Amino acid sequence: MVLTPRHVIAIALVVFGLAVVYWQVIERLVDAWIVDGNYSHGFVIAPFALFFAWERRARLKAKPLRPSWLGFAVFGVGILLLLAGLLGSELFVSRISLVVALVGLLAYLFGWGHVRILAFPLAFLLLMIPLPAIIFNQIAFPLQLLASRVGEWAIALVGIPVLREGNVLTLAHTSLEVAEACSGIRSLVSLITLGIIYGYFIDSRPWVRVAIVASTIPVAILSNGARVAGTGMAAQWIGPSAAEGFFHEFSGWVVFVVAFSMILAIRALIVRVAPEPRSGLLAA
User: Fold this and answer.
1) Cα–Cα nearest to 48, from 113, 115, 117, 128
2) C-beta of residue 85 within 8 angstroms of C-beta of residue 95
3) E strand or H helix that includes residue 108
4) How far is C-alpha 66 from the geometric centre of its chain's CA atoms?
5) pLDDT in 10s for each residue of the chain, 284 residues
6) Are strands 175-177 and 163-165 parallel, antiparallel or unpaired?
7) Domain residue spans of the chain
């Protein structure tokens, strides 16, 4: 693929036009990353996606240009989704349309071969888009109950009397509610993102990368259950104030670090059982 100055100018104008069309969507998306702690990781998604794309520059350069009119049709679908999302006040649809439109533009300007090379960076962009509330709640509520069960089991294991009713743990001196923010979905989403990035850089084997990402799910569940249990124990032994404020917030960071350490240990175990035949950073 050889780009002339005319091609570069045309691409720059297209990117500028796309930014103008999607400015309102991008602005609201950034606002969601700031306001909603469940998606604060969104700020790192685009820079890493750009890096993953840049890393494929040699393969993109070697690929001949084969623009496809079908790509323009896909771009049109993306714009229709944008209009539907804006008119229907459906943020998820309008945000997804950005990725769809980007795929269509790439296919129209360069060809589907380039889209296939950039499949991983494009798919990675989906992690920056908050899930619809109906799907988010379907995930968060079971996680709340699961964290409550794990916390109840661990608290009872150390001999502290505890009664669980749904997502509420009743102790001798206080009651703890495992709220949505404590369900573990925040750490789950962040760990999945971190697992994808870590797996990409640390191991070139696809199955190891998949295993690392898959391990983030049970790790997030266990670590969040341990946080709930630790909060309950602190409330019982120190006082109800230990279940809120600085201790509660700080414990979240500690548990996240412990969870990532567990992922490092899992990868080390995989390497010990199945050593990587060759080292180095390879494109996915």
Assistant:
1) 128
2) yes
3) helix 91-109
4) 33
5) 556 676 677 677 777 888 888 998 999 999 999 988 778 888 999 999 999 999 999 998 899 889 899 999 999 999 999 999 988 878 899 999 999 999 999 999 899 999 999 999 999 999 999 988 788 878 877 888 888 888 888 888 888 888 888 778 888 777 777 766 565 677 788 889 999 999 999 988 899 999 999 999 888 888 888 888 888 787 777 766 666 655 666 667 788 888 889 999 999 999 898 887 764 444 44
6) unpaired
7) 5-130, 134-273
What whole-number distance in Å separates Cα of residue 126 and Cα of residue 37? 17
Of 109, 9, 122, nearest to 66 (Cα)? 109
Residue 246 identity (one-letter amino acid): F
Cα dihedral 36/37/42/48 (nearest 10): 170
C-alpha 67/C-alpha 83 separation (Å) is 25
Task: Determine the distance from the C-alpha atom of residue 36 to the mean position of all C-alpha atoms in its chain, rounded to a whole number.
Answer: 13
Beta bridge partners, 175, equal 170
3-state secondary structure of 59: helix
Radius of gyration of the chain (CA): 23
CA atoms of 52 and 50, how far apart (whole Å): 5
